[in-house]
Design a protein that fits this description.
Elements lengths: L6 H11 L14 E3 L5 E3 L3 E5 L2 E5 L4 E2 L10 H8 L1 H11 L21 H5 L3 H18 L7 H17 L5 H13 L1
Antiparallel strand pairs: 1-2, 2-5, 3-4
Helix pairs in contact: 5-6, 6-7
């Protein structure tokens, strides 16, 4: 589906102004997410330009490759028009979920976990592991209080450290970041 026109100018204006990112066709790319199976899902209610009119798409609507919506191949259009969403989906596909690092008994030896492995975790798993580890370290130090903001900052610091030091162990990263925060 091509609607031509000022698509590139609109994208440039959106990048400068922070407005929603429009594809050349007028699709709101940030209103869709690409799934690992190649389908696309609307992340909110959105108006989609079509031949001769605009169609309303409800949040959660799913568009599969090869499928047709009101005479349009929306999945193919999104694939072509929204490269940032395609790249984001590819990045998610390379992530490894935390349970995959578990031993047969179900336990994860965090002492053996590397920064490279931590950096490849999905955000929710990284937050979970970081929170558990910081809590464990605080427990060892007999600190029974939790400062949510500080824990989140520590986890972000560990993520940054691990991305720059993938050869280090995860627990080393936690130690380095927590010691730096105490200064």
């Amino acid at each position: 589906m091509r609607f031509g026109g000022l698509g590139l100018a609109i994208i440039a204006v959106a990048a400068v102004t922070g407005a929603p990112v429009l594809a050349q066709s007028g699709l709101l790319c940030d209103a869709f997410a690409k799934n690992q199976d190649g389908s696309w899902q609307a992340t909110r209610n959105v108006a989609v330009p079509g031949p001769g009119r605009v169609f309303n798409v409800n949040q959660g609507a799913l568009f599969k490759p090869g499928g047709s919506f009101m005479g349009m191949e929306l999945a193919a259009d999104l694939e072509r028009e929204c490269p940032a969403a395609v790249e984001a989906a590819a990045a998610v596909a390379t992530q490894v979920e935390l349970p995959k690092y578990a031993a047969p008994n179900g336990n994860i030896d965090t002492d053996k976990l590397t920064c490279a492995q931590f950096a490849d975790l999905p955000p929710d798993d990284a937050d979970f592991l970081g929170t558990w580890t910081v809590g464990w370290q605080n427990g060892v130090a007999k600190n029974r209080a939790i400062n949510v903001t500080k824990v989140r900052e520590t986890i972000r610091g560990v993520a940054v450290y691990c991305k720059a030091n993938k050869d280090k162990r995860f627990v080393q990263a936690v130690d380095v970041v927590m010691k730096a925060e105490k200064r």
